[in-house]
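User: Before I run my own analysis I want an independent prediction to cross-check against. Here's the chain; please return only the structure tokens and, at the end, one sentence I can use as a sanity check.
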Amino acid sequence: EAIATENHIDEVFTDENENSDIENYTTLSNDINKTNDKETLTLKNDYQYDLNKDQKTITITKSITIEGNGHYIDGNNANGFFTINAKNVTLKNIIFKNAKTDDSSIIWNFANGKLINCTFENINVSNGAIRVLGNNNIISDCAFINCASKEYAGAIYANNVNLTVMNCYFSKNSNNQNGGSIYSPYCNLNVLNCSFEDCYSSAQGGAISTSNGNVNILNSNFTYCSAGRGGSIYSYPSKKLNIANCNFVNSNSATDGGSIYVNGDNQTISNCKFVKCNSEENAGAIFISGAESLIELCSFTDCSSKDGGSVRSGDNLILYQCQFVNSNATEYGGSIYANSNLTVIDCTFTNSQSTSYGSSIFMNKNNLTILYSDFNNCPSDMGSIYAKSNLLINNSHFKNSGKLYFSDCKNLTITHSTFTNNDNPAINLKGVTNATISDSNISSNARTIILEGSKLINISNNNISGNDKCVVDINGGNCTISNNTIDATGIDATGIQAKNNAKAEICDNEIMSRGTFTITVENSNATVKNNELCSNSKTCEDSIMNNGGVTSEGNTKFYLTPSFKVTAQASLDMARLVNIITITTTGKDLTGTVTVTLYLANGEVEHSENITITNGKAVFTEPFLAAGKYAYVVNYNGDNRYNPASEEGNITINKHATTITPKTAKVDYGYAYKVLVKIDGKSVGAGKEVALKIAGKTLKAKTDKNGYATFKLAIKPKKYSATVMLNNVVNEFKGTKKVSVTVKNVIKAKNVKVKKSSKKAKVKATLKTSSKKAISGKKIVLKIKGKKVTAKTNKKGVATFKIKKNILKKLKAGKKYKYQVIYGKDTVKKIMTVKK
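Assistant: Structure tokens:
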């Protein structure tokens, strides 16, 4: 909300002298009294309370503005500042410090006041640095530092008013009862864009405490705030509470709600972040209770508590699109402990832990609903989710986590969900009545489902596969297992057990097993009918281990029909051409051999071979198979689980693509020219011979481990068209590529002037690469008029030629001569001008 500014009628100055002096409260009070209504008093001095001269309180009784211009008012650790008994008072740009009083340092009794860009520091009071009793006041762009209160609110105490606090900074404020920085009973409070650091209350609300009001806390940050309850925010009872777009870091409480404790009728916490928040008892981040509560779009990271590592709820709570990472409870509910109705929608739980029940969620009673949510790496021997409530889980996913443990609850539904790599078992029902587990994928878990004394259990239309041990263990109670697809081919897959007076109906399931699938009935009754079994057993009845009352009818054995896919890959063995043929089957436990026949385009047989199948694959190599298209036929004779099968198709052997890069290069004279050789996009590796034809010569080099061949080019600097080729390989790998190579001069010389009359002349030349790296210690030659002069380059690559008198005598004054500087085959020609 923008702060409205007023058009002031006049300005009153305390002193025409612009030098700042320290005045007492009496002077300030007189200046205020001399300021007319709606005028602005501009301070030019600092003020300090004088115990011997000043009255205790300065009272403002007119609608004035005090512009502080950064001056301070000092209570001298013996007094407060103002009592405001007028509407529309504005205090701006003032520093208030060193107040000490049994009341508040500023008591604001009237409405529509504004406190703008002021600082309060080292304030020691009983009820807030500011006590706001007037309505519709605004506190903006202020700082409250080291403000301490014996009772309520270290910084701001507002009672039964509308108050907005915006763009303010609170640091190291404290109190002994409510609200380390702000306490607002019976208020409509707006806190916007504020920051709270290291604020503390020994009772409730390390930063803010509210009750019986409508509260908005938006776009604010809370860091290292702490309290007995509600480390950053405490609101009880609340009418309506909205906390949005806030960050809470290292907030903690001695009891409940490491960051927030809230209890009321209507509360929303939205788009907030909680990091490393902690409580000693309940709710590392949020303790929330009330008729209607919503937490949405929030993230919780590294939060911890005894119960409810991140959240504990008392009444109706909805969690929507929240993320829980590394939440931890020393007892119950690693992420959430719920006492009543809880709905979780589109949330993720990662690495949640607890030492007791519910590493992710502990649900004590009433209704738990989980929709479209993910649980990853939340292990627990006592359940990733533990619930004693009515339950609905729909379209949710559980991976690498603890079992779902439901005890003594009714009306449980799990549908359209997945369970993968979870602890033993994936689902555990104990004393549950009326439960349905349907249309879900339960795979690769230590065990699948354990039922202990549970009644009216329906397990239907699920895909159950790859679990280590028993698919369903029925220990007492009654259960129907129907219309499931069960792949019990995992390690020690022992099938279905019914014991201890259980009643089971096992019907219309499709069951597959690598070994002998068993349905074990001990002191129980079971009906086994209309199931289809694919296993090593002769019949379905052979799979029933009967030590009770079993009715078996209409069960059949079936065989699977495999399919095959053939792929070809040419190896990169360049001395001989080998093609790797791979046959992949849908039956990973298929046994025996397949016969593969390859045909040429004219129908002739190119190759035929029997290959053993291992882990669903059969592989053979065919040497010297030319590039082209081939037809294939795969034949399989079947085993005790799979039908005979035949499949036809085509494979293509592609030509090899040899690439040599770069196609164009610039190389300094005497330096290396490197080429990279690849075949089918992969490096040829070490030891392959590569030839370079350039300047009428053929140079040879072997590739290094990365496929690079390196040639040193000591040829005349200029641009060359060259050829690079891969040697000593079969034709399919040979590659000849045209390249352009420019060899650059490394000699740098200039046109020079010399004196014929000199005893000797000095001429300099430089050897440097194109990257300006000096070439030192090299011998180079200067040639002029058939005479040669030699010199060595120094560490900077500079060679200095000394042309002696006998050479200078042969040169005519006033003439120009061509001279050459020579380094190997690198030659530069320049002009030498001779003077007298």
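Sanity check: The chain has a mean pLDDT of 89.
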